[in-house]
Specification:
Elements lengths: L7 H14 L5 E2 L11 H10 L15 H15 L9 E4 L1 H13 L5 E6 L3 H9 L3 E6 L3 H14 L6 E5 L11 H14 L2 E5 L21 H4 E6 L12 E5 L1 H14 L5 H13 L1 H24 L13 E5 L9 H11 L2 E2 L1 E2 L10 E5 L4 H21 L4 H11 L1
Parallel strand pairs: 1-10, 3-4, 3-5, 5-6, 6-7
Antiparallel strand pairs: 2-8, 7-8, 9-12, 11-12
Length: 405
């Protein structure tokens, strides 16, 4: 417990909840929690099968076969990857649960994993919870990332055991091409690395870009696995359903751990997920377009209020924005708290994703276009107030002077 830092997002959520109890309409862009409805065919199927008492029992921990078979068909159709639904796919309670339990299967005391930074907390602290250690490598420069992975495997002792990847990346929305994964496979073979790719945002791509699957890389099935989730593309976040696909030994390791921890996902939800994969591919594509439209509205609006230089993401459901220079000294946590107070907009502070995230905030594209534009207007109001009052960065300076006294 001593190695787990305070969960900073909990502080933001507590402030948000307090403001809402006071009747304040907070525009929530802090968490990647879809607000759009689950496609109707999925909901209708759940309503149908939930009435069947046969679905009220414990389910199989690995997931029902028909869903794993549908997932296999999905990978074959989308990425040209042939998977054995019996041995190379396992259902998970969302990708986060599966990822954390896989850490228990792969890592023990003294083992080391490489994690791209800044990182979604479970990618680094799933390793800690398993008793291992993680080494962070900055995610922004692909060539430099690959070079550092290779150098770490050569020079670090004990040699890293697992390489975790996440593209499109959370929180930065950084994306890669298939050639990047080819280099990853070559490095992994050279150094006997296990590679685990979190592909949670694989179906959310913009401007004609198509996020590549790690498993579609020649040799990937020999050394790794990939997590996917129904949460984002199908707006099924609260349903908690995802899956892990890939190397048979890795999938079996996760299955053994899960066999001790849970009795599987509610079977009615699994049956509804079959309908999602089978009938709602177009809805998922339309949802990606909706996120693209919100991205455009947000970036164009922030540009107008003087928040410039923000990269235009090609995937995921986030904008990763460096705090404007005039407000940067206060730090991401205070910047996010002040936005909540003065703009009534919730964002995720970059420090919550590790030290490399300091100076940034993450804005989730979950609010509709109208609410997104309202958020921009509120941010303009807050920036104007701060500039007029001159509270930045003198607030920080005054605190330092007071501490010195």
């Amino acid at each position: 417990m001593g190695r787990l830092p305070p969960y900073l997002f909990g502080q933001i959520n507590a402030l948000k909840d307090r403001k809402r109890r006071q009747g304040v309409d907070i525009i929530d862009m802090a968490m990647g929690n879809p607000t759009d409805p689950t496609p109707q065919p999925i909901v209708d199927k759940l309503c149908e099968v939930v009435r069947d008492s046969r679905n009220h029992r414990y389910s199989a921990s690995a997931g029902i076969y028909n869903l794993r078979r549908e997932m296999s068909k999905f990978y074959q159709g989308e990425y040209g990857v042939k998977l054995d639904p019996e041995k190379e796919i396992i259902c998970t309670i969302g990708s986060k649960e599966g990822f954390s339990h896989l850490c228990l299967a792969l890592l023990g005391s003294g083992d080391t994993a490489i994690v791209p930074t800044p990182s979604f907390p479970i990618h680094s602290y799933g390793v800690v919870l398993a008793g291992g250690n993680y080494l962070g490598i900055p995610v922004h420069d692909d060539a430099e990332f690959l070079r550092k992975v290779n150098d770490t495997c050569v020079n670090y002792f004990p040699r890293p055991k697992v390489l975790f990847l996440n593209y499109p990346h959370n929180p930065t929305a950084h994306t890669v091409e298939q050639d990047f994964f080819r280099e990853v496979v070559a490095i992994a073979r050279r150094h006997r690395l296990i590679v685990i790719h979190d592909f949670a945002y694989g179906e959310i791509s913009f401007d004609g870009y198509r996020a590549p699957s790690f498993l579609a890389t020649p040799g990937a099935l020999e050394i790794g696995a990939e997590f996917t989730t129904m949460s984002k593309g199908y707006n099924m976040a609260g349903w908690r359903i995802g899956y892990c696909a890939g190397n048979e030994k890795i999938v079996n390791g996760l299955a053994r751990v899960k066999g001790y921890y849970d009795y599987g996902i509610f079977q009615a939800i699994q049956i509804a997920a079959i309908i999602a994969l089978r009938e709602c591919r177009e809805e998922a594509r339309q949802q990606a377009l909706e996120y693209q439209n919100r991205r455009d509205a947000l970036l164009e609006g922030l540009e107008r209020v003087g928040w410039t230089g923000i990269p235009r993401p090609r995937g995921a459901m986030f904008v990763w924005a460096q705090i404007p220079p005039e407000f940067r000294e206060q730090g991401s946590m205070r910047f996010a708290s002040r936005l909540m107070e003065d703009a009534e907009v919730a964002v995720a502070p970059g420090i919550g994703f590790g030290p490399e995230g300091e100076g940034y905030v993450r804005l989730a594209l979950i609010e509709n276009r109208q609410r997104t534009l309202q958020a921009v207007r509120n941010i303009r109001r807050a920036f104007t107030k701060w500039r007029e009052e001159g509270k930045q960065p003198s607030t920080v300076d005054s605190r330092r002077q007071e501490g010195q006294r």
